[in-house]
Every structure is written in structure tokens, then in C-alpha cells.
Amino acid sequence: MNKEEQLFNDICPYPDSMFHEKMEHLVKEPGFEHAVKWVLPQVDFQEFCKELLQVQDKETFQRKIMWPFLEMLAAKTTSGVTMDGVENIDCSKAYTFITNHRDIVLDTSFLNLCFLRAGLPTTEVAIGSNLLIYEWISDLVRLNKSFIVKRNLPRAKALEAASELSAYIHYAVSDRRQSVWIAEREGRSKDSSDLAQDSLIKMLGLAGGHDFHDNLMEINLMPVSISYEYDPNDYLKAREFLLKRRNPDFKKSQRDDLFSMETGLLQPKGRVHYTVGNTLTDELKELPNDLDKTSIARDVCQLVDCQIHSGFKIFPINYIAYDKLHDTDEFARHYNDDDVAGFERYIDEQLAKVEDVPDLTADDMAYMQKMMLTMYANPLKNKMSASRYCRK
């Protein structure tokens, strides 16, 4: 382990020198065995472990193990995973890919699948410590090129952790020429109205040794849009909205997070599409020299939002949801009666899964239905807004 790896030892992906040791430990974990048998019931676990123990580094792990797994998962749970804009990526450079956040596990997994298909290097992945419920999950993600974002810390510790995270991202992108991925905000946007958080941009600009503006320039920010035709967790998000309406202090449990991860991983998603945007380098160069950090962060958020919203792929259900929500037929040309009937049936079937909330009323069901319509309408709403306020 080199000096930099020691410096970021508690958050960085495991170095290849530790790969075999960590994998030997992982395959002995009962929780890992249970997870593999649940996700891959057709696989002989002992044979799978033998295959894992032959792998000596993270790149080989991603290409020999994760790539075939993700292709299988895409075939079973999607109607296709596609990407455009790949020509915007220069293989000689490293980037900080910043995306909207739809699925806890698959946003970056499918992004890296698209990169592997295109012959591009995969990214390292930021993952929140709140999701690393068991030690074996932490080991698995760090073997798979993930670095840890420390969550739920006291204020002083949070500032320290933000500085460490920023320093690691700058080290990865600038020194190692290793691209990284990070979501534009902490947590998924429950209503699918994706907006970048200025606190995230401020974190990215903490390190680099220059002023805030140049620190952001250094890490090659590149927005990427993620569009899911169906969100398997939509009914869980609607349920969470309802529980928060009943009790504003409601907070999800670790069990809820695990179930969301499992649902997103294994349930149907329809079509999944990625749109790679352009780096923000030129726009950052054009910002006035006299802007303070807060103003720069705000402007960068708007630049990220513009590219992500503009890049959304809009599906028939987005048009249907928008028209239903606003009691209009403005977008009726984009769908037919069968599309509407299928979407209505889908909403009913998803909401029927909300079985653990006591004393559900007709008003509760109507509220959750409205929230689900909002989730599917917002990508279209934001794309239309971007066409008006974003620079062409």
C-alpha cells in the first residue's frame, strides 16, 4: 500500500495488493453466501467461490465477474440498457461523472456496463456509508472499485470527512487518471425531480490546492442523465411520502434500505438509458472572476441541472403521467389507448404492494397515486423547463 492509499485507507477501494486477502474473507461470510444464492439461484456457490478466488485484481473482477452478471441482470430485468454521447468521452482523460440518482445499486452498475461495452475504462463509485449495513457489503463494494462517503456524522466530523472525500476524488482524477462517479445529491430524488445540491459542489471544490473555481476545473466535471422507464421502487417512495405526511419525523430503517436495494436490483425496469453530456470546463472558464464560492456553486448546479434535464429520454408513460396529473391531453400524440391502459394497470398493481401501512384510506391511496404520477411526470416537466432556461 503506497502513501496515498494509506492516507485514504478508510474510504478508498481496496488496492490490488489486498484483493485476494479480502476476497478470501468475503467468500466465507454467511451473508455474502445468502445474497449470492438469492440473486443467482442457478449458480453453484462453491464453484462460484473458486472462480472468485482465481481473480487477483479489481479490473479483472469487473470484467470476468461483474460484466457477465450485469449483462444477465439487464437481460432479465430491463428491456435494454443503452447509452448515447459516448463520443464526448476522451479516453486519455479522467472525469468526475455526476448524474441524477434513480437506483441505489444500478445507476453506476449499468453506467459501467455501458462503458465496458464501449471499451472504456470503468469508474470508481461513491457510495454512502449508511448503505454498508454489514461489513461484508463494505468489503464487496470496495473490491468493486467503490469509495466510501461517510454519512450521519456530527458537524465537525462531517467537515473533516468532506475534506477527505474531496481530496480523494482529486487524487483519483488528477493524479491517478481514474474517473469517478458521484450522484448530484445525497440520496435519491423521491419525486424524480432531480436537482444538484450546492453542498456537493462545495465539497468537490474543497481540495486541489487552488482557489475554489480552479479546484472544480481540475476534476473534469461531466454530467450524465439516467432515464428509467419504470422505477421498481416507485411504490416504496409513494409509501414513504405517505408515512412522512402522517408523521413528519418518519425515517426509513436499515431494513427499508436493504429492501429498496433488493427491489431495484431484481424487479423490472423497462428501458434504461444514459446520455453522456459535455464537460463543464468551457462554462467554468466563462464564469466571472469576482464570484464567491456560494455563487460559483449555485451556477455549477444550474449547469449540471441543464445538461441532465436536457439529456432525459422521455417514454410514453412520462407523457401519460404528465397529462393525467395536469388533466390535459397536451401530449396525447405520444401514446395510445393501450399505453394508457397499461400504465393505469401498472400503477394499480404497484400500489397494491403497499400492504404494511395500517388503516389505509381512499384518500391515502389517492395521495400515493398522485405522488406516483408526479414521479413519472417530473422528468418531462424538467426537460421542458431545460429547453427554455438552458443555453443552447
UniProtKB/TrEMBL annotation:
Q: Which domain of life is it from?
A: Bacteria
Q: What are this entry's molecular-function GO terms?
A: acyltransferase activity
Q: Which UniProt keywords apply?
A: Acyltransferase, Transferase
**Which processes are annotated in GO (biological process)?**
D-galacturonate catabolic process; D-glucuronate catabolic process
What name is this protein filed under?
A: Acyltransferase
Lineage, please? Bacteria, Pseudomonadati, Bacteroidota, Bacteroidia, Bacteroidales
